[in-house]
Amino acid sequence: MYDVAILSDLRHPGGNSASIVAEVRAQAAAGLTTVLVHVPSPRLRHVRPFESRVVACLRDGLADLADDDDEIDARVLLIRRPGAFTIDPPAVRAGHTIAVLDQLPGDFGEVREHVERRFGPLVVWAPVNARVREEVLRVAPGIALPETDWHEIIDVAEWRHERRPHSTVPVLGWHSGPDAGECPDTPDVRVRLLGGGESFREFLGTLDFFVHFPDPVRAPAGRSVLEAMASGVPVIAAPHLRSALAEAAVYTHPAGVRDLALRLHQDRPAYEALAARARSFVTEQFGSASHLARLASLGVLPRAAVPSPRTEMQPSARPARRVLLVGDDIARFRAVARRLPADIEPVVVAGSAGLPAAHAAGLLTEYLPSAADLGAPENRWAGFVRDRLRHLIELYGPRAVLVGGVPHDGIVAAVEENEGPRWLWLRAAMWRRGAGGQWAARGALFSGILEPGEFAAGGDEGWTTTARAGVSTVDPITELPRKPRRRTAENTLLCRGVVASLPGFTVAEARPGELGGIAVAVSRADYTNFHELIGARVPTVFVPDPDGADDELARARFAAAAGVAICATTDDEAAAALERLADPAAREALARRCAELSFGNGAGDAAAWLAGHCRERSGTGVRSAR
User: I want to staple 494 with a disulfide (CB 3.0 to 4.6 A). Which of 55, 236, 387, 521 is the partner?
Assistant: First the structure.
């Protein structure tokens, strides 16, 4: 049961994502749990990743991301941009459902019917401001609206920045609009327009005043005005905004902007008083507390003391560094990406098999087709990989590229052509004896090599055991929670890569955080399943794949020798082992042994290692390793 579920297209840029992120951060600071439910809108026709601020919230653990087939229960469901959905969104059971309207859909009647058919007739339609409220009542006069608007909120602490030195000439940031051509560009006043790839935060940091003259038929106070006030930049606004902003701004017509700005700029006490009034106004009217108050009115009460604006939770900084994670090792990529510092943004570059799992984690993704996908011979595909990675490096400017899997010819060509980023290798251990040795020499290509740990390292006879000079190692990397717990489990059977049944047991699915509720499992002994199931203390029968890329048989036999699992190499052995684990006493013995031989999670150490390389300068040089 989540406190709040937010359903929206998480790719939308601009105000929609800003509002979602502000509410998620306010809820997390108050100890409330949030789940984000992504529903793609057909209006975003081009392939686009989740908005970067939404990704940061997911990466920082402030919210969970619902899978497509999840059944979600929440105390409150917020639907944002309900007019964008033409398909049925996932079912969410909620005590209160609020459809937030930041603008009136042109086909409001159809939208309302669609949403209420899916979520019931008790959906509350909540306009964000007076203008939208008037439009809704105009097209649906009989609709019952809440007394107060579901106005957007702003994390005031996020926008606080160091005060600019008092300049000799006031700098005015003019909001683009119908009057932008009337900027008072004179020798005693400097005017700036936002542009050139500059973020709004950076733009505000250069200003003495923010000038806002929107079209009178638009919303009375745009988010940009609130952000300027929160950052300490006084606002000069059009007179029709007085009813919304009161004494938090000063008002004039475009022709009067220059004189008003000069007068306030010269009267420093009046300038400082205006900035203070504006910040207090935003804090009281649009701060996190106002959002928590409306949730409280719906029965969702904070579980933690809400910090004051001065100590409010600091959000992730705007990512200053990026790292490309190349390959289909998605489980380990996700585990590491979630623990990267907020100023490092990961981008997963994977094939069609890996992209859905990376998308589900809210990560930025880029497609790298395999040779089979392209129907190309290996030598031509190597050239394609080189060119594709060159383009992505030019696009994202990463500090580092982490290669998962093997450094095939396409990777070699890309390394030799792109010396800007640091090239790193996430190298697997536990190779089958006599296999994979051809990759050893290619380790010289990389500035760093990281080898995730193996619980079954004592049974490892692969080539990496004699090639660890200069290689960094960490504990096994998994997506398990920090403290996996066993719960009183129903008779559930988890099958991973193996088809099986057990009388009296129901076949179930489980993500890493849900493994504690699984009674028994039967699985392949690949890296991810092996370490997740043992780490979560799930009584397991491992059925190794003799043709697997790594030595699954050695893993399964080691686990059996250690008493943490059962190894079965035939169907009859697997059936007998599962029948044995139908006994609760046998399951408890395996779970207890797993707890005795527990291992740590190396994902945090791996993230710290990767972050260290992202902060170092490149220029180590590249040696040929063909």
Answer: 521
